[in-house]
Amino acid sequence: xxxxxxxxxxxxxxxxxxxxxxxxxxxxxxxxxxxxxxxxxxxxxxxxxxxxxxxxxxxxxxxxxxxxxxxxxxxxxxxxxxxxxxxxxxxxxxxxxxxxxxxxxxxxxxxxxxxxxxxxxxxxxxxxxxxxxxxxxxxxxxxxxxxxxxxxxxxxxxxxxxxxxxxxxxxxxxxxxxxxxxxxxxxxxxxxxxxxxxxxxxxxxxxxxxxxxx
Length: 214
Prior knowledge:
The protein is an alpha/beta fold.
């Protein structure tokens, strides 16, 4: 029996989207901190991601966009683990055709940290890590990442998530229903007001044009 299945019993942690027959929902663009709490990420079917790398096949890719959602989930599950072990496993789970992204951990993990009186200094970015979700973000001073490596213990540490700004957070089903109904009525009134304002403007224009003709 072939050992191929045994060799590939772990999924790749990053993948690239094929143009032919693939769906765009697996593409992640830009800064992950913008999308990590969205329903889009939560609803991704991770079982449909490739389990092993095809050999000798020629694929075309969609603008070289990378799906790194599974890598983020992996890192969250390794909170408190030895950083050297985490790095080793990640390097083993990046397909060879994406070897140029072997340093992608730096996108999400501040691995060179110096503890200072003012906070944790990211030596790569030359900025302070934003650790307090309630602290105002200043891009001149702060860098926002989801993880950092503790310089004393060499352990991976997950930074607290920013609180949700959604108005509907924590609402019951009945409260949510009333909120949606009120929101709908407000939008309807706003639309009606705009229509009335438009008609008013049209009437004023008609009067001006009529006066000019006279």
